[in-house]
């Protein structure tokens, strides 16, 4: 037997359910947001005692709410306690995604297989020997391995959380619902007071209470009454102070779209929000800007990182350990998100091949195909152009309106003219090879 | 100023105000930790009062361990006093006032005066958050002026930290603080975004009407720094110094 023994930490057993020790600092315990790629950006997960603020300024989509639902679903699946602060908490909970029926490992594997099958077409391309051994290029982090399934489950957006799960969770006291708009003295201050009461009760009962996830799907929406920027700032500040005092809880907060804009909060509003929460990111969707969605057709929006959690260290653990941000090797990567049928992912954003063209042009160049088709139709089109009336009577798809016929005829003339020439030029090209010669006796030095 | 001699020793001196401004992408926490713990390690009877608006004590405790300062012992011997500023400032009131916070700081500093020779440092972290949470700009700037006057009376040095949220367009509070300060440490991020090797840049300016004894650093020739687990490494721009 080897004399070397692997050091095992005794702490690993004492970590509460659904959490793990942060890779950056042993005193920090992190918990998953339910999205592996977001966990990666946060440096392993959201640390307990920290708050995460997700801003989604686009009014036509609800990506901020989606992240909150992942956060809640992960808490439910991991057996942690959840506190939802909203007037429609019941509906919100019922809309959460869930793990697909059947064993988790199988579905994850099936998903990956599907992805692989998609890539098969690309795999057929012959790769130069020196690049063949390289790992396949990845734009995001893989879903959690089976050993870590309890930490971050694989959720399927096509599945809803079963009623029975919610009912059992309610029965066990796993879910706490705080109504925002109850009574006259409602508002951010009262909510903070209620939350402080809940957290204090937890701390009184046991010395190491179960982790509590506080989820606020839309802080400052109409249910909260007429809130000002100062009240939002006070609430976020107060929430963070509470979480620090009771380090078994963590919070995820979203603002309604119109509050995520500097036009509402004044200049520097996003920066202020970033200072007042431990982690803050913006998911700015492309839906409002068609040119962006055309340019980045495979993504649904940009991810901007404002601040990252580092409760016990000077440097956020994300800087060292995040694969997606890639700071350990060079500058920070650009990030974008996409919401597929089954899951939400954050990926590194790259320009597509050939500087921003959406489709891959690894197949034979398309212009050769066009030329071939032009050769085939060469004989037929001029006749229809010359005597359009005859063609319309013979052709199956006859057009009744005569003026349009004429216009169509003119169009075809203009279109077909270059087509007639193209095959010849292509023929010439293939025959004559380019020559470059140098003539010293001529005024133009190069002869092609 | 070269990277080797940064940050300059004895900055700020007693009765001086050092203003530290930072931005979200380049927080200046490391300068506060360094300032406080270097001050405590400097002389045996050095004293320090930290009043924090939005920070928490956990990170101070954790960083003290990394910078080899016995935090618990410092607290017990009253060499270090940590004050939660929000416990003394009721920002939720109709007309929030910072008088009670001033009184609390005054009492704490007076208590430190038992040893008049002891060099005392007062750190007020995050004065900007007070304004964001509803305290009027006038009240905050009056408070800053009163605190500075208190420090001059008690022969203490003062460090104020202010967050800049609109880079390039100083707000009224920042203008006021710039008028007040003796030195201004300006921490700002790289214009090209986050980098793995360089976390930000530092410039040192002097306040109005101060014949500075320290060599200043302009923004165009700013020093760069990289954060480590227990502090920061400073180096000149470019690849010099064998850092990059």
Automatic annotation (TrEMBL), chain A:
Concerning its family, UniProt says:
Belongs to the ELP4 family.
Give residue spans, biased composition: Basic residues.
428-437
Its protein name is Elongator complex protein 4
Q: Where is the composition biased (Basic and acidic residues)?
A: 438-448
> Cellular component per GO?
cytoplasm; elongator holoenzyme complex; transcription elongation factor complex
Give, as in the UniProt entry, the pathway in which the protein acts: tRNA modification; 5-methoxycarbonylmethyl-2-thiouridine-tRNA biosynthesis
User: Which classification does the entry list for the species?
Assistant: Eukaryota, Fungi, Dikarya, Basidiomycota, Agaricomycotina
User: Subcellular localization, per the record?
Assistant: Cytoplasm; Nucleus
Task: Report residue spans for region: Disordered.
Answer: 1-29, 376-396, 414-448
Which organism encodes this protein? Obba rivulosa
From TrEMBL, chain B:
Q: Give GO BP annotations, semicolon-separated.
A: tRNA wobble uridine modification
Question: So, what pathway does this thing act in?
Answer: tRNA modification; 5-methoxycarbonylmethyl-2-thiouridine-tRNA biosynthesis
Check the record and name the Gene3D superfamilies matching this protein: P-loop containing nucleotide triphosphate hydrolases
A Gene Ontology CC term for this entry?
Answer: elongator holoenzyme complex
The source's domain of life comes to Eukaryota
Q: Which family does the entry's similarity section mention?
A: Belongs to the ELP6 family.
Protein name according to UniProt = Elongator complex protein 6
What organism is recorded for this protein? Obba rivulosa
């Amino acid at each position: 037997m080897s004399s070397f023994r692997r050091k095992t930490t005794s702490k690993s057993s004492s970590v509460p359910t659904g959490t793990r020790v942060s890779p950056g600092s042993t005193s920090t315990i992190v918990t998953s947001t339910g999205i592996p790629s977001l966990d990666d950006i946060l440096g392993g997960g959201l640390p307990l005692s920290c708050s995460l603020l997700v801003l989604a300024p686009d009014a036509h989509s609800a990506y901020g709410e989606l992240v909150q639902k992942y956060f809640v679903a992960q808490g439910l699946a991991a057996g942690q306690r959840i506190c939802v602060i909203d007037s429609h908490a019941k509906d919100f909970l019922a809309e959460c995604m869930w793990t697909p029926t059947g064993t988790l490992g199988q579905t994850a594997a099936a998903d990956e297989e599907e992805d692989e099958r998609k890539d098969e077409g690309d795999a057929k391309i012959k790769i130069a020997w020196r690049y063949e051994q390289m790992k396949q290029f990845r734009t995001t982090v893989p879903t959690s391995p089976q050993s870590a399934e309890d930490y971050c489950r694989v959720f399927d957006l096509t599945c809803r959380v079963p009623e029975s799960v919610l009912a059992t969770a309610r029965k066990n006291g796993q879910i706490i619902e705080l109504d925002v708009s109850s009574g006259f003295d409602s508002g951010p201050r009262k909510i903070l007071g209620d939350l402080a009461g809940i957290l204090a009760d937890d701390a009184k009962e046991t010395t190491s209470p179960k982790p509590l996830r506080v989820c606020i799907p839309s802080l400052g929406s109409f249910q909260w009454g007429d809130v000002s920027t100062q009240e939002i700032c006070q609430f976020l500040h107060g929430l963070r102070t509470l979480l620090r005092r009771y380090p078994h809880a963590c919070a995820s907060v979203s603002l309604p779209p119109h509050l995520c804009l500097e036009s509402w909060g004044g200049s520097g509003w996003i920066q202020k929000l970033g200072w007042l929460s431990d982690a803050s990111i913006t998911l700015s969707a492309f839906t409002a800007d068609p040119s962006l969605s055309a340019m980045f057709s495979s993504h649904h929006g940009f991810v901007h990182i404002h601040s990252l959690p580092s409760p016990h260290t000077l440097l956020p653990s994300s800087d060292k350990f995040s694969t997606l941000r890639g700071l350990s090797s060079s500058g920070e990567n650009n990030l974008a998100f996409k919401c597929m049928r089954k899951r939400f992912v954050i990926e590194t954003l790259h320009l597509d091949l050939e500087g921003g063209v959406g489709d891959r042009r690894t197949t034979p160049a398309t212009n050769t195909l066009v030329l071939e088709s032009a050769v085939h139709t060469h004989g037929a089109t001029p006749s229809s152009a010359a005597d359009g009336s005859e063609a319309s009577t013979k052709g199956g798809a006859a057009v009744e309106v005569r003026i349009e016929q004429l216009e169509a005829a003119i169009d075809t003339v203009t279109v077909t003219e270059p087509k007639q020439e193209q095959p010849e030029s292509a023929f010439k090209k293939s025959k004559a090879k380019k020559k470059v010669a140098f003539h010293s006796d001529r005024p133009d030095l190069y002869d092609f | 100023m070269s990277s080797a001699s940064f940050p300059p020793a004895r900055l700020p001196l007693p009765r001086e105000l050092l203003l530290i401004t930072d931005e979200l992408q380049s927080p200046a926490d490391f300068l506060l930790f360094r300032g406080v713990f270097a001050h405590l390690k400097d002389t045996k009877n050095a004293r320090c009062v930290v009043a924090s608006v939005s920070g928490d004590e956990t990170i101070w405790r954790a960083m003290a361990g990394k910078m080899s300062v016995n935090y618990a012992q410092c607290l017990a011997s009253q060499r270090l006093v940590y004050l939660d500023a929000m416990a003394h400032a009721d920002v939720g009131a109709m007309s929030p006032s910072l008088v009670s916070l001033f009184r609390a700081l005054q009492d704490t500093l007076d208590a430190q005066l038992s040893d008049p020779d002891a060099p005392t440092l007062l750190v007020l972290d995050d004065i900007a958050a007070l304004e964001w949470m509803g305290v009027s700009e006038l009240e905050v700037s009056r408070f800053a002026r009163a605190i500075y006057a208190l420090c001059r009376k008690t022969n203490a040095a003062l460090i104020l930290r202010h967050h800049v949220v609109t880079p390039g367009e100083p707000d009224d509070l920042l203008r006021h603080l710039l008028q007040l300060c003796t030195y201004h440490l300006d921490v700002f991020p790289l214009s090209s975004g986050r980098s793995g090797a360089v976390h930000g840049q530092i410039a040192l300016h002097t306040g109005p009407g101060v014949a500075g004894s320290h060599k200043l650093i302009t923004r165009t020739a700013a020093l760069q720094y990289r954060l480590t687990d227990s502090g920061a490494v400073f180096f000149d721009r470019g690849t010099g110094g064998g850092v990059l």
